[in-house]
Design goal:
mainly alpha
Amino acid sequence: MSIHPSLRPSKGRGHRSVFKRFERIKMLADKDKWNEKDSVFGLPKVKSLKIKVKKEKSEAKAAAEGAAAAPGAAPAAPGAAPAAKAAAAPAKKDQAKAK
């Protein structure tokens, strides 16, 4: 019998809304809301925000293409294009021989 997906141990740390006492103290200390003199019992609740990072595919691709075709960019070396074509030609011949 298999384990239900919700009961499987997670590979990475997911979003948690309940923290241990030392984690709550650390968060409160970072916000300057806890002193060493305060009691560790009866700590206030600590809010945890879940933040999703969106991947921007279309903008990243457009920026990469724009940088390659930018008018102020340095021109390619004059001998670069023929060298690339020459390197591709032997590869095509090798593929034809393999068939």
